[in-house]
Amino acid sequence: MRICMVGTGYVGLVSGACFSEFGVTTVCVDKDEAKIARLRRGEIPIYEPGLEDLVSKNVRAERLSFTGDLNSAVRDADAVFIAVGTPSRRGDGHADLSYVYRAAEEIARGFDGYTVVVTKSTVPVGTGREVERIIRGIRPDADFDVCSNPEFLREGSAISDFMRPDRVVIGTESERARAMMGQLYRPLYLIETPVVVTTLETAELIKYAANSFLATKITFINEIADLCEQVNANVHDVARGIGLDGRIGRKFLHAGPGYGGSCFPKDTLALVRTAQDAGAPMRIVETVVDVNRLRKQSMAERIVSACGGSVDGKTIAILGVTFKPNTDDMRESPALEVIPALQAGGAQVRAYDPAGMAEAARLLQGVTWCQNAYEPLDGADAVAIMTEWNEFRALDLKRVKSLLRVPVMVDLRNIYKPPEMATAGFRYTSIGRPAGVATPEQD
Ligand code: UDX
After folding, report:
1. Ligand 1: which atom is nearest the Cα of residue 256?
2. What's the gap in Å between 324 CA and the centre of ligand 1?
3. Domains recognised in the chain with CATH numbers
4. Could you read off the pLDDT of 353-412 as tens digits, one per residue?
5. pLDDT computed for residue 443 by the predictor
6. Model pTM above 0.90
7. E strand residue ranges, 321-426
8. Is the CB of 11 inside a 6 Å radius of any atom of ligand 1?
9. Residue 254 Cβ < 6 Å to ligand 1
10. Cβ(218) to ligand 1 under 6 A?
């Protein structure tokens, strides 16, 4: 089988590399010639563990290739995936579909023989139908079907999410297209991956509903954390206590500074707008969007109050700036709210992140960027952990304390335990957990 992946962004590149690993001959296309040239040299433009090896292995095996020539790539393909960007349109929160529709037009002009055109980008309900209409308009007699095949890839673990998914969603009314998609995902049948076969519209909605539900779950536990702080309860234990109920599940109940990234903020907003337009407003998701926005803004206040009510003239060390670990992605990261707010309060900010600093330096001014986790702490009045990178999980606490001018730690990811921090002599605050009491025997 041969496929063509249109768009070599995050989703296109990961999906293309993984399909080629499944043994499918895959051509990835992008308009950006410089990007294609880099990919041909084996340079991977995104940070994703394991991706570079997977790409080079499959390029060597001649199953994976990159081109700027969409026409020839589409002509030979049995299935063409649209994996171009769908940014939030400025102002109204709707997904901007111009790239998707342009790709559909170009594909329409290029394909030859029966072809399945698959939307992989996250697109609003109805987009698949529109893609079908566009292609039919240009090629009234062509033999093709349109299918929606949403991705559920997390940055940082995208390859294993692709290779061992919880489920595959295939939205098409055509038996021929369904069979073709089944062929493509055949290696997953061995691990008995459930396949949800449904209509175009339903498949499109599944993606938005999944992401909005997860964003709701996170926001729910974040609000429980706020309540825990007022009533001296522990959110970690609440999450465990409710998560062990199989109907609820333990995942995505980790309280923190608010969700960020390229998907949840964009997809929740898009669902809200779609629902409003359809006359079936989703008030829960509307509230989630609002609560999460305010939460990210309020995180700086926690650091200010841990510093005694003002950060004016103080130095604050920040560990982690990306929206989550194992990515260099800064999109919608809480750090983008927190750092400017601290600076506006008169603080000097020194920061370190294992992968995100190049991008963060473009977005944040006046920050002193450091080379390791200890460097920003030197003489600082407080340290705030904003991203739960592994290398922050086992810091040498004695060294941390001796470097800080004042032993204040604000742990927005709850990676340390309050009693252990109290014992180590820190003024420690975290999310939704009572302050710890130092245990005498460890003093
Ligand atoms: C998400 C979805 O998980 C994926 O299925 C979809 O296709 C794309 O969007 P991603 O954005 O890469 O993936 O990251 P994810 O691991 O889901 O985390 C999203 C945000 O939620 C991060 O800011 C993370 O810190 C936050 N989060 C996640 C929490 O605050 N608590 C949790 O318990 C889980």
Report:
1. 30
2. 8
3. 2-198 (3.40.50.720), 208-290 (1.10.1040.10), 297-429 (3.40.50.720)
4. 999 999 999 999 999 999 999 999 999 999 999 999 999 999 999 999 999 999 999 999
5. 42
6. yes
7. 348-352, 367-369, 382-385, 408-411
8. no
9. yes
10. yes
